[in-house]
Amino acid sequence: MHLIWENLIKNLILLWTGEFKGLDAGSESYEIGREVWEAICEATAATGDTLPSAYCARPPNPHTERSACTADSWSFWTQYIGPVLLRQKFSKAICLQFELTTQDVGDLRVGFATWVEEFENIYYQHNPRRAATCPVTIHALLHIADSIEASGPVWTSWAFPMERFCGRLQPIIKSRRHPDACIARYLINDAHLTQASLVYNMMQELYVLKITLDPTCILLPPRRKGAGTIDPPTQRKILNALATRFNVPLGAVKRAVTAEYLEQMEKWGRVRRCDGGDTMNAASAVKAQADSRNASFVRYETLVDKHAHQRNIASVYEKRTFYGRLEHIFVVRVPAHPSLHLDTPETILFAAIYPCQLTPTPPSFTSLDIHLYSTLSNTLDIVDITCLQCLVGRIPLDKGRSWAIVDRSGDLARATFED
Fold first, then answer.
1. Residue 206 has what pLDDT?
2. Residues 250 and 339 sit within 8 Å (Cβ to Cβ)
3. Distance from C-alpha of 409 to C-alpha of 55, rounded to nearest angstrom
4. What's the Cα-to-Cα distance from 309 to each of 196, 312, 379, 383, rounded to whole Å?
């Protein structure tokens, strides 16, 4: 962890900005103009509003808040923010993959050796006066593949969990004379609460207000219900979604789901995926605050008919991935009715999403699982709540005229923390 995020990346940035131990670019031209670097740093800090807190701490400005840049923030910047703001100058970090094959380790060994050789040519330039550009950490890169072979992928031994745990302890120290007593009391209380929740299966009951209507997720407030909660056009979209779900004509759904049941529909503000999943906000229900971070953009998967525009061909469904803004979360109670072939009442959870209209993605972004979009669709997409997969972050481009979508659910390992 410290080898790359606390040494290599920081040294590279010092070299790019002409601040590395008084050395200039020599015979190369790798330095970034001061105004350009300041603009990159300002854009980095601006991403905090559109990156969910589940992804990372709010990114600091590397130029004006250098002391606030931690290994965690540099890691996220290198994997997601940097490749976007530096216009596709980064390639995929194979060594951070959650799983590695023997071929991957071999590619790493060759790749690091090639990178170190290029680094020496660009920065050291085979000039003894520039030897300071080659600290021992550059040589250590050549041993990463050996370390992976000996102890497994890098996530098995990095120090992120311990550093985050220490960060949790700092705020609970209230006494300078007896900090150990504060830490001990916190750890004991935390252990008591954890054991009670495990022994009595109360993990979900720790939430003040929640509702579990589906085994895959939990609904969280705010909640609205009653007449007028859902406007008529959206009600019609929900009825169409029910017709698709039960594979019956729309008229059959209208006979079963009468006005009484339409008025009983509920809107919820948040949904949390079970088993450590993300908490996703409905944009229409959760008001944005001045310092809030957007947690309403999601990745979702649904089945799409490959021949939807060809009526005379039998339907063939395939799973596709989409991105969009979660607008509403609906709870629909459907009565037992013969027209729906339903013998018992059923409660269905729907998510209403405005899909992102993706634009062509450069090949270098494709390898990093980064996608681009410019606008949201005007058509509300009603899908089953189980289609929601996770939160995604967004990085503004061209002063907000387009956006880069960053999805941390790919094969890159990252620091994930669970209480």
1. 59
2. no
3. 10
4. 55, 9, 18, 20
Distance CA 25, CA 128 (A): 14
Contact between residue 277 and residue 390 where contact means Cβ atoms under 8 Å apart: yes
Low-confidence ranges of the chain (pLDDT < 70): 1, 87-96, 202-213, 364, 366-367, 410-419
* pLDDT (0 to 100) of residue 412: 46
Q: What is the distance between the alpha carbons of residues 123 and 113, in angstroms, rounded to a whole number?
A: 15
**Separation between Cα atoms, residue 342 and residue 246, nearest integer Å:** 9
Measured between its terminal Cα atoms, the distance across the chain in Å is: 22
CA torsion angle for 72, 78, 83, 87 (degrees, to 10)? 110
Nearest to 19 by CA among 38, 39, 45: 38
pLDDT for the residue numbered 416: 41
Per-residue pLDDT, 205: 59
